[in-house]
Amino acid sequence: MTETTILFLRACLALLAMPIYLLSFLGIWKPFCRKVFFPFVLEKISGIHERKTKKQKQELFHNLSDFSRPSGELKLLEIGTGCGTNFQFYPPGCKVTCTDVNPNFQQGLLRSMSKNQHIHYEGFLVAAGEDLYQVPSGSVDAVICTFVLCSVQDVNGTLKEVLRVLRPGGAFYFLEHVVADHSSWKYFWQQIFYPTWKLVFDGCCLTREIWKNLEQAKFSEMNLKHISIALPWTPIQPHVMGYAVK
Prior knowledge:
single chain, alpha/beta, Rossmann fold, seven-stranded mixed beta sheet, 7 strands, globular
C-alpha cells in the first residue's frame, strides 16, 4: 500500500512539474538549469540557508587554523563552492582555491569575495569533485565540502580525490544532508520528492547515506555527528557534519 501511495504521489508531483520534464526530454532543461535557474535560486535562498546553518558552521570550522603548516600558511580547497557562503567562516589570511562543476556561479562568487576580504582568493577551477586533476597531490591543508556530496556523480570517487589532494595530517570538513530514518514520515516524503527534486535541483539526491561513505573512506581519524537542521518547506532535515583527518 505504501509503495503504491508513493508511486501515486510521485506521479502527481511529476504532473505539476510536467513543463520541466518536457524541457528535460527535449534536452533544454539541464543547460538552462545550470546556467540560469540553479545559480539564481541558490543565491536567493542562501540568505535563509545561512541563518539556519550559521551556528553549525561556526562550530564546524572553529578549529580550521589547527591544520595550518608550521609556517602559519593555511591552504584550503573548497569543492562545490557555489556562491561562496562559507568564506565568512574561514580564518584570516588563509589561501582558498574554489572549484565547482558549474562555472555559472562565478558572478555570485565574486560578490561574496568582495564581502570577505580577510581571505586570499587563489582561483576558480571548473572541476567535478570526482576529478580534481588540476590540483596537485598532497598540496592542500584542508578540503571543504558542504551540501555537495548529495549531488556528485560518485561519492566514493570524490572522497578518494579528497584524500589524494590533502597533505598527510590535513583535514576534510563536511556538512551534508542525508536520508531520514526509514520508519519516519520524513523518509516517506523524501521518497515522493526524490525524482522531481533531483531533476529540478541539478542532481541533488535526498536519500544518500553519506555517513557510510565517510566511515568507509581511508581517513586515519573521523569526527562525525548526526544533527538536525530544519529547512522549512523542504524534505531536507537530517544532516551529518564533522571533519576527517588524512
